[in-house]
Write a structure and sequence with these properties.
heterodimer, A: mainly beta, Methylamine Dehydrogenase, Chain H, five-stranded mixed sheet, 2 helices, 8% helix, B: alpha+beta, six-stranded antiparallel barrel, 27 helices, elongated, WD40_PAC1 (chain A)
């Protein structure tokens, strides 16, 4: 005699079991944030500018040089433009760079670049050529190539340095995986790159073929990943950002379990190549969506708190990336239609 | 460019090559007459190097054609051989004025045959194997050509003198003796229309014979025969009565002549005139019959020029102001050594097969010459003009149609200038000659294609391929910095020196150069070193060939070099721009296995094993790394690998018994899988034992 209720409870139990298997038998369900804005902060559009008709895919504040925390840059096509945020919502153009259409350093387009905050000479790049490369920008040397037998099997979309472990990077891409790499064994080459005096192209570039950890958190393209301490934030086209903990085993690198900790829902965010950004202290994360709205999440509270939901009647085009300023007081977004929106926090 | 460099000529005249009235001296002038400064000499050498690329191409083509010659050239080869075969044509005729006492009716028709005795010839009985019957129906005096004489082809005199089989031949005359044909038992019937077919003779006849032997001894006395002169002689033949009987027992065309029951009184004598002439000798000039050995060197160039079939090739370079000259024999092509039978043939061959060059053809009474220069108008494929992005430029295709017209024009121009030349070398005549020769029926087995006797040519023919290579290298001496000092000195040597070098068999033979090339290669790549030194199977010419090709790539012409420098190249893995010296260097390490990283990865992967001891892991790692570095790929490599591994790691193994035990266990596993034989395993253990003893007592090792 099987009752409907028991069937449904079985079903839910099965579902939970599946969930648990995915999170590696750790027992706790992920905390999902509520979409009701907490109204902790209020933002208002203070400026809007059009760079051109071509879509802008990346925007980022400078967190490296403490003198210029108000400087940001945008990228669209083969053009990089550097701006400065001034008082009263003003934006000044500083410089613009247009590159010629050739691939130097990578075999194909570069999808993301991150700078190592502990050693700003080190830059890591993720490329369509399925590789992640570590560069020394002072000597122009390609030090390491993270690709090969254990590397990504499709475009690499995003990459990030670990905030404290200088050897560690995380990368994700169109092969649905997030991979964590260690360059500890290769650190001699990184050091060598600082003292290299010969031609950069003669440097003995090494291949790092095997990551220390491969996570299948998502079932679709993973287009953005960031470290939050030893945890990892990553997002796919599932309308959410996921915070999870990689649990590596010392004996067997490459394997390990994933503990999903929290989920930050982002409605209407089901197309790929939409990236989130965080402020310097990783207190908040901002992400745009397909409809031109921005969700600002408090990262480090549990369950996550939606700080604000930003929308403007004239901002309809998909937001590819946002940029949170050093203290989170300014949010910039770059759109598919080539426009840049500036939101400033309203002092209450 | 094989051939005999024409270097001894003294009376030369430096004239403008454009002058219309060329003299023989101008055609054969030498560059040694031109006095050049050192820079000019260098520039001249440089400009000579434009020949390298096309010559190299034709060398490659010729190399391919050695095993599989084209149909046309194969046919031509047979024709040339047939044409050069020496034979003697013998004409037998009856002169009426000589045979007045004989009744015309009694003698004619007279059948003339070649015969060889089959059985023992006794006084009354003889069996002959006969061939090639001719019938003489009238006496010679009437001036009628047909059926007044019988023609045979017999081998040349040397052959006659040496070959006993040929010496046995007889010319046999048969007359039916009873011209009326009234007798019923005389069945002689001859079909006059089909003279070439074997006559059906039977019954009572009269017959006589002329032994070739006797003919031969009289021919030997006639010296001028080999120069194409006719030798005529008269011979008296006794005609005996006999009864004739065809015999087809085991051989064809045998006839039995028996004189048992015939009346000997009917016999008479016939005067036969025999005329001998050597065929194939007509086209030759007297100089052909001497080998170069016999000729004093002072007159050698003269002879060279006069000999038919010898063609002078003048290679123009340095803006047509200089030329190198060489001579080929038998109308041979200097690039692919094909013998072309005639100057006309050579001309067709050159323009059709070697269209990277321009050719001018000259023929005078004394000699034939070809002026060669490199065509520059068809070398455009890699030229990029300034401001044009090479990446945007597509390859262009030079259509055959265009090229065809061009070469045609060339021929037309040439024929316009020298119409008389073409007449003297008309193709019809040449064709007829060879055709005739081919149709001649002859059973003679001799092949009289005269071997070339002088040493220079022999050297050329013996080792054509490598010799050409060597020469090519010499021609490419513009890149002096790539060459060793020894080569350099050779390159600036005079033409005379060069000629001498060609004849010298030992000092600079192609083989030694090949070895040099091999060692040069060996320093570049380890694999190649194994190949070159390890096995003798690799012919040095191959290595040399590779070397030559490499040189030519590096040499190239300035345009290509500029192109290399103009383009931006990128490293394949790092995708970083290459420096120009990296582009021109032949080292690209990016595809090589990075041993340090591979070792690291291997060790890391081995660390994953949980049921393997530390020692086992270490042996595994040592073996993996050894196998990767030594490229142990096939099962057959395993015995060698085990011994080399034992030798290499003996110290470590001996020091740690646990490791040694793992290694021996591994060898036993290999033996289990039949990858290692007992002999090799024993060798390994001997190696290890020796080290073990050595470590306990170092004086023994």
């Amino acid at each position: 005699m099987l009752k409907y209720s028991s069937v449904s409870s079985l079903l839910s139990g099965w579902e939970r079991g599946g969930e648990m298997a995915k999170t590696g038998q750790l027992g706790c369900e992920a905390a999902v944030g509520s979409l009701t804005p907490a109204k902790k902060k209020e933002y208002k559009v203070s400026n809007r500018l059009h760079e051109g008709k071509r879509p802008l895919y990346a925007i980022s504040f400078n967190f490296i040089d403490a003198r210029y925390y108000d400087v940001f840059a945008t990228v669209g096509g083969n053009r990089v433009t550097v701006y400065r945020c001034l008082e009263q919502g003003l934006i000044a153009v500083l410089q613009a760079y247009v590159d010629e259409d050739s691939f130097v350093g990578h075999g194909d387009s570069v999808n993301e670049i991150r700078t190592q905050p502990l050693k700003p000479s080190l830059v890591v790049s993720a490329s369509k050529d399925e590789s992640v490369r570590l560069w020394n920008v002072h000597t122009g040397i390609c030090i390491l190539i993270f690709a090969g037998a254990g590397g990504h099997r499709n475009e690499v979309l995003s990459v990030d340095f670990h905030p404290s472990d200088i050897y560690r990077i995380a990368s994700c891409g169109m092969d649905n995986t997030v991979k964590i790499w260690s360059m500890k064994e290769f650190w001699t080459y990184v050091e060598k790159s600082f003292t290299w005096t010969d031609l950069p192209s003669k440097f003995p570039t090494k291949y790092v073929q095997f990551p220390v950890f491969i996570a299948s958190v998502h079932s679709n393209y993973v287009d953005c990943t960031r470290w939050l301490g030893d945890f990892v934030l990553s997002k796919s086209v599932d309308n959410e950002i996921v915070l999870w903990e990689p649990k590596t085993k010392e004996q067997s690198p490459g394997e390990g379990a994933v503990d999903i900790l929290q989920k930050y829902p982002v409605p209407e965010c089901d197309i790929w190549f939409i990236k989130f950004s965080c402020d310097f202290h990783y207190n908040a994360a901002a992400i745009g969506n397909r409809e031109g709205k921005i969700y600002v999440w408090e990262l480090q509270s549990s369950p996550p708190v939606l700080i604000a939901r930003l929308a403007h009647a004239q901002c309809k085009s998909p937001i590819r990336q946002t940029a949170l300023s050093f203290d989170g007081s300014t949010i910039l977004s770059c759109c598919e239609d080539g426009s840049i929106w500036r939101w400033d926090v309203v002092q209450s | 460019m094989p051939g005999l460099p024409l270097a001894v000529r003294e009376t030369t005249n430096v004239g403008c090559s454009c002058s219309h009235s060329r003299t023989a001296d101008q055609m054969c002038r030498q560059q040694s007459r031109v006095h050049l400064s050192t820079e000019e000499q260098l520039a001249a050498e440089e400009s000579l190097s434009v020949y390298c690329k096309p010559v190299e191409l034709y060398n490659i083509l010729q190399r391919r054609a050695i095993r599989n010659p084209s149909f046309l050239q194969r046919c031509l080869q047979y024709k040339i051989e047939a044409k050069h075969k020496r034979r003697i044509q013998i004409t037998v005729s009856l002169s009426g004025s000589m045979n007045v006492e004989v009744q015309k009716q009694e003698v004619l028709p007279l059948h003339v045959l070649l015969g060889r005795p089959v059985a023992d010839v006794t006084e009354h009985f003889a069996v002959y194997q006969l061939s090639r019957a001719c019938a003489i129906t009238t006496f010679n005096q009437y001036g009628k050509k047909d059926q007044t004489e019988a023609n045979f082809i017999i081998p040349e005199i040397k052959k006659l003198a040496s070959d006993a089989r040929v010496r046995n031949l007889n010319i046999i005359l048969i007359s039916n003796g009873e011209p009326k044909g009234a007798s019923g038992e005389n069945h002689l019937s001859l079909d006059h229309e089909e003279l070439t077919s074997f006559p059906n003779i039977e019954g009572n006849c009269l017959w006589g014979k002329i032994p070739i032997d006797s003919l031969c001894s009289s021919l030997e006395r006639c010296v001028t025969l080999s120069l194409g002169h006719k030798a005529e002689m008269l011979s008296t033949v006794n005609m005996h009565p006999c009864s004739l009987e065809p015999k087809f027992l085991n051989q064809n065309n045998c006839m039995t002549f028996s004189s048992h029951n015939v009346d000997p009184m009917n016999s008479y004598q016939v005067q036969v005139s025999i005329c001998a002439q050597e065929i194939g000798a007509r086209e030759r000039s007297p100089y052909d019959s001497y080998s170069y050995n016999d000729v004093p060197t002072s007159s050698l160039p003269h002879i060279i020029r006069l000999r038919t079939g010898n063609v002078l090739f003048n290679y123009r370079y340095y803006n047509n102001t200089l030329q190198k000259t060489e001579v080929t024999e038998d109308f041979s092509c200097p690039f692919c050594l094909v013998r072309c039978a005639s100057f006309k043939g050579l001309r067709c061959h050159l323009t059709s097969s070697h269209d990277l060059f321009n050719f001018e053809f000259w023929v005078t009474e004394e000699y034939q010459a070809v002026n060669v220069s490199v065509r520059t108008d068809i070398w455009r494929s890699e030229v990029v003009h300034d401001g044009v992005d090479p990446r945007l430029q597509t390859f262009f295709y030079c259509s055959k149609f265009k090229r065809h017209i061009r070469s045609k024009n060339l021929v037309q121009n040439a024929s316009h200038v020298h119409p008389h030349v073409l007449e003297s070398q008309s193709p019809e005549a040449a064709q007829e000659g060879s055709h005739e020769d081919y149709l001649q029926k002859e059973n003679g087995t001799c092949s009289s294609y005269r071997p070339i006797a002088y040493p220079t040519d022999a050297a050329l023919l013996n080792d054509n391929g490598s010799y050409k290579e060597e020469k090519l290298q010499k021609a490419s001496f513009s890149e002096t910095h790539l060459m060793s000092a020894r080569h350099k000195s050779e390159s600036f040597g005079s033409e005379n020196h060069y000629a001498a070098e060609c004849i010298e068999p030992d000092s600079s033979s192609p083989d030694t150069i090949g070895v040099c090339a091999a060692t040069a290669q060996a320093s570049i790549s380890n694999d190649f070193a194994q190949l070159g030194s390890g096995s003798n199977l690799v012919p040095p010419t191959v290595l040399q060939f590779a070397k030559t090709r490499k040189l030519s790539v590096e040499r190239t012409d300035p345009r290509n070099r500029a192109l290399l420098q103009k383009r931006q190249f990128f490293h394949s893995h790092r995708a970083q721009p290459m420096a120009s010296e990296q582009v021109s260097s032949d080292r690209d390490s990016e595809d090589e296995v990075d041993d340090a990283i591979a070792d690291f990865e291997d060790r890391r992967m081995l660390d994953d094993f949980v049921d393997v001891t530390k020692d086992e892991k270490q042996i595994m790692h040592m073996w993996n790394s050894f196998v990767r570095k030594q490229r142990v790929l096939a099962d057959g490599h395993i015995p060698w690998a085990c011994q080399a591994f034992s030798q290499l790691h003996a110290q470590v193994l001996v020091r740690s018994p646990a490791l040694l035990w793992c290694w021996k266990l591994f060898m036993i596993k290999l033996w289990n899988h039949s990858l290692l034989d007992a002999q090799a395993m024993n060798n390994c253990n001997i190696i290890l034992e020796r080290f073990q003893n050595g470590s306990s007592d170092p004086k023994q090792s």
